[in-house]
Amino acid sequence: MSIEKEPLFSVKNLKLISEPLGQSNPITVQVLGICSALAITVKLKPSIVMALSVMAVLAVSNVVISLLRKMIPPRIRIIVELVVIATMVIMVDQVLKAYAYDISKQLSVFVGLIITNCILMGRLEAFAMGNKPWPSFLDALGNAAGYGIILIIVAFFRELLGSGTLLDMRVIPQAVYDAGYMDNGMMVLPPMALVVVGIIIWIQRSRRKNLIED
Amino acid sequence: MRSFSNTYIFVFSLIMVTIVAVLLSFVSMSLKPRQLLNIETEKKDNILTTVGVTGEASGVDKNTFISDEFKKYITDSYCVDFNGDKLDADAFEVTLNLEEELRKPREERNYPLFVYTGDDGTKRYVVPVRGRGLWGPIWGYIALESDLNTIAGTVFDHEGETPGLGAQIATVEFEKQFDGKTIFNTEGQFVSVEVVKGGADPSDKHGVDAISGGTITSKGLQAMLMDCLGGYVAYFKELANN
């Protein structure tokens, strides 16, 4: 048995991380996980916590499912995937409630709703069920990062234009307000998140023509 | 694809749920004390907010900070009963379990009361309230001036009201409307504060604007004030006369 061992960070493995950031981004290309992206991107801080939570849940779930992939009876695989995700989400929720109570209140129901985030089931079903733990782990990091980066970009613009702050710190100086500038209240509402996501998709597709469908 | 026998599937599921159950119970048990502390801190913080004590914890842990501020400003706390007599029960304990307290008939409930004494000696009285919104419980704290009639400040919160509609009760704009309203009319009768659909007249001392699109939450809030504040009437009258 002398199969050459694949290096941990081979080109193929690195692609697992880089592709979801760009050309197979879960939000802008696959249009998954939109619901939470619209709901919690009013401020940067909850968005970052949400992105990290999804990353933790997805990474652990992907590895667990990948380790068990040969033992899981195909007939009940979806249930098993769901149980693993739900367990992780409850754990994340409990930890947030204990150590980041204020943020957990802001995220409210959306931490629990990570369970129904299509990105998670999608990755477990499409990737972890058929791949080894290490690539599955990288795939999870890549996809969660791809999700997180869009969340953070959207939250950046919404918090900046909607509240004039970043991470709750005032960045637009008072002098600008005195000159007649006003925060755009529309940015705080969910529909504007959709518009911002739309603009990101537009920019991405105008630069990568191969993403455009007829 | 390998096929698995039914027995295997059953055993697999059994083992899986057992592991998950043990794991989650362990996590829940070990984090419970910290979570309860956070909830206590939040309640104390809310009570302090209604009387106008709002400080940011700098350098120290938020839990310690709020707990110290609470000890400093809330100089007394006790429960009263429906007839206006003081009781032994711990006010904070009752506030934490207000939901169960409200299941009792009105005459048998303990009514918790917190007394704030400001730096300049002004006294205010804070009452916890709890009721039902559209989707779940709503609750809050009402601070009364020393005349036990004028509202000095309010904080409301909810579990799962619709964002943008019912959830608006937890905004400063809504809470500010209550400042200066009175709960007794000029004849000294308890009338509480009404939530008026279509907007309350600014001169109305017992009415605030309801929330558009949040009618059931608004009505629930009004019922909550009527129900919870109503139990203190005997005690307030007694205290105001002395």
Give an overview in words:
The complex is a heterodimer of chains A (214) and B (242). Helices cover 65% and strands 2% of the residues of chain A. Chain A has helices at residues 11-21, 34-39, 44-68, 77-99, 101-107, 109-112, 118-126, 133-163, 174-178, 190-207, and strands spanning 165-166, 169-170. In chain A, strands 1-2 form a two-stranded antiparallel ribbon. In chain A, β1 (165-166) and β2 (169-170) form a beta hairpin. Chain A starts with 10 loop residues before the first helix and ends in a 7-residue tail after the last helix. Chain B is built from 7 helices and 8 strands, in the order ααββααββββαββαα. In chain B, β5 (137-144) and β6 form a beta hairpin. Chain B is globular. Chains A and B meet through α4 of A and α1 of B.
Query: Overall pLDDT of chain A, averaged?
Result: 86
* Tally of helical runs of chain B: 7
Based on secondary structure, the structural category of chain A is mainly alpha
- Silhouette of chain A: globular
Overall shape of chain B: globular
Give the proportion of residues in helices of chain A. Answer: 55-70%
Counting DSSP E segments of at least 2 residues, the number of strands of chain A comes to: 2
